[in-house]
Design goal:
heterodimer, A: 490 residues, alpha/beta, 23% strand, B: 134 residues, five-stranded parallel β-sheet, 5 strands, 46% helix
């Protein structure tokens, strides 16, 4: 017998000989035996740990055996107790079994008699323990099922997507609150036909599955625009719900709000159509020039031909710039730009940028006045920062008048490097200033017609400034000039 | 026959230059303008025999607005006003002026696709002038 499978016995008897004799006898038979020499000790032991079998002497000096029995079975109702006494009487026998003793053994008892009783008792004990175990397990499982059910309900009711389950008769059997909004219903009656109350496209989606000849494990989706007090785009996906035998039990419809996605989609397609327009314009112009010059029926003076070639070059050049700008923007959008963050001295960036434009500045006889104050270096990618100021300074030159001025001022402003670029150019009207950072916005008027640009320069500037957590401000007076102020954090 | 005067309005100066040259080679007199606003001014000053307008200029609908204004003008009602655009291709949205209804809300006499085929343009102008005995 393994230790853990050996029955544990407690013998409570004030008579030493009997206590030890019984212990020896039982141990020989494979029981594990503890003993107590009085009622108090017996109760202490028997309640502290659960014995399989307890033998209790009825008459003890300190405590009555019946009382001991009571105390022990109160704590361990499945412990099997035996009452034993030399003063056997019919009444005590009845009384002791009435209050929970398994059996009554009169003293003196033969070893065989005791062992037989103990064996029966132990069988009983095993049955009791087993049934207790099942009972506990069953209760735990019931609790778990109930818990699972409420938990599942709570989850279904909490999800923001709409959920509707329809049985094969087209009746609603389960739904969550979110679905009401997407179906534009105030209430759903369970176990009532619902399909005729749904948006026709969603109804069709369900019917497709319900009416199918045989069960197919396939989902269908449809995007529906709902007209309510707010514009709502919903994607409904229906999937079949099978019975265990594989036949169709019903259909589950999940509805998702895709309004935001649709908005982004629209913005994207607007951007694409703007890009196509901007790409097409220079191509059409150059194509027109080529066709014109190739047209034998039109006489074009050589001088004009040269202008056409020049114009074509300018247009192609701007097309190239546009493509480059677009690639830059796309890189920024996809965040694939590899940045090399280093300490940068803005004065050096500004000086080298200005140097690049020296030729244009001289051509337009622009007076450049720069004031560089000592600044803390900033941490940034040199190429991006150069790009930022190249765009701004190039604008200050392009939109300036001949003989105009450009003021560049660099200084430290709290934790920021502050750069101001002021020109004496054509300036902007307030409504033009508003759209300044939009892609492809270019102020179109007499003064800007001859100036080439992609319409993306300032949009790139803004993206760069934003990406470093900086700020850009514009001030402008129509026909007088513009000021761009850039703050870049150190 | 008197030389017909055409007002050509487009915000792309190169296209204006090209079409001006081509139309002049066909013996038209060409006025030009580069925006809806400027187009209206030149229209009022010159009272041309026809107006060709690019749809997308300073705004996305500048062409519609200008043609609407001209067609509401007493003189404008008597001359052909055409809109040229590549918007139909870009937006996938088809404009037309084939029905009375469309002409009612678009307020122009024809919509031509860019790039403009001048022979087609000239033919449409002639048809209009012949019909209206100008």
């Amino acid at each position: 017998m393994e230790t853990e499978n050996k029955p544990r016995v407690l013998v409570i008897d004030d008579e030493k000989g009997l206590r030890l004799g019984t212990k020896r006898l039982l141990e020989l038979e494979g029981y594990i035996v503890d003993t107590a020499e009085n009622g108090t000790d017996g109760v202490a032991l028997g309640t502290k740990s659960e014995y399989d079998l307890v033998l209790i002497d009825l008459k003890m000096p300190d405590m009555d055996g019946i009382e001991v029995l009571n105390e022990i079975t109160k704590v361990h109702p499945t412990s099997i107790c035996f009452i034993t006494t030399a003063y056997a009487s019919y009444d005590t026998a009845i009384e002791s079994t009435k209050i929970g003793a398994f059996s009554y053994i009169p003293k003196p008892f033969l070893p065989e008699e005791l062992l037989l009783q103990f064996k029966k008792g132990y069988d009983r004990r095993i049955l009791l323990v087993e049934s207790e175990k099942w009972k506990a397990e069953r209760e735990a499982r019931l609790l778990e099922v109930a818990f699972e059910k409420t938990r599942l309900n709570t989850i279904i009711n909490s999800i923001s997507d709409g959920l509707l389950v329809v049985n094969s008769a087209g009746e609603a059997v389960l739904y969550n609150p979110s679905v009401l909004k997407y179906l534009q219903l105030d209430i759903i009656q369970l176990e009532q036909y619902i399909i005729d109350k749904l948006h026709p496209e969603i109804a069709q989606l369900i019917k497709n599955l319900l009416d199918a000849d045989n069960y197919q494990c396939k989902s269908f989706s449809v995007q529906v625009e709902l007209m309510g007090h707010e514009r709502l785009f919903v994607e409904a996906t229906s999937s079949p719900v099978p019975h265990p035998d594989g036949t169709l039990a019903g259909v589950v419809v999940v509805m998702k709000n895709i309004t935001e996605l649709k908005k982004i989609e629209l913005l994207k397609s607007q951007f694409v159509s703007m890009v196509s327009h901007e790409l097409k314009a220079p191509i059409a112009a150059v194509y027109g020039f080529l066709k014109l010059m190739n047209d034998k029926t039109v006489a074009i003076p050589d001088e004009q031909k040269n202008t056409f070639i020049e114009r074509s070059q300018i247009r192609l050049d701007s097309l190239l710039k546009l493509v480059n700008d677009l690639l830059d923007i796309s890189k920024m959008e996809m965040k694939t730009i590899h940045r090399e963050i280093k300490e940068i001295n803005l004065q050096r960036v500004l000086e080298s940028t200005v140097e690049l434009f020296q030729h244009e500045i001289n051509d337009k006889k622009i007076v450049l006045i720069s004031e560089y104050n000592k600044c803390q270096p900033i941490n940034a990618d040199v190429e991006e920062i150069t790009r930022l100021f190249t765009n701004l300074i190039s604008n200050a030159i392009k939109y300036n008048k001949n003989g105009g001025e450009i003021h560049i001022n660099l200084k430290q402003s709290c934790n920021y490097n502050f750069v101001e670029i002021r020109d004496t150019g054509i300036g902007m009207k307030p409504e033009e200033k508003e759209k300044l950072f939009q892609e492809f916005f270019r102020a179109k008027n007499d003064r800007t017609r001859k100036i080439s640009g992609t319409g993306l320069g300032l949009s790139i500037v803004k993206r760069i400034v934003d990406s470093y957590g900086g700020r850009i401000e514009v001030e402008s007076e129509f026909t007088k000039g513009s000021v761009f102020r850039v703050y870049l954090p150190c | 026959m008197q030389t017909k005067k055409i007002l050509y309005i487009d915000d792309d100066p190169d296209l204006v230059a090209q079409n001006k040259l081509l139309l002049e080679s066909m013996n038209y007199h060409v006025y030009t303008a580069y925006s809806g606003k400027e187009g209206w001014d030149v229209y009022q000053q010159t009272k041309p025999d026809a107006v060709i307008i690019d749809l997308i200029m300073e705004e996305h609908d500048s062409g519609f607005i200008l043609s609407y204004r001209i067609k509401k003008d007493v003189y404008g009602k008597t001359i052909p006003v055409f809109i040229v655009t590549s918007a139909a291709y870009l937006t996938g949205f088809k404009f037309g002026t084939s029905t009375e209804e469309e002409r009612e809300w678009i307020k122009c006499d024809a919509i031509l696709n860019k790039p403009v085929v001048l022979s087609e343009l000239v033919q449409k102008l002639d048809e209009f002038w012949a019909l209206h005995k100008k």
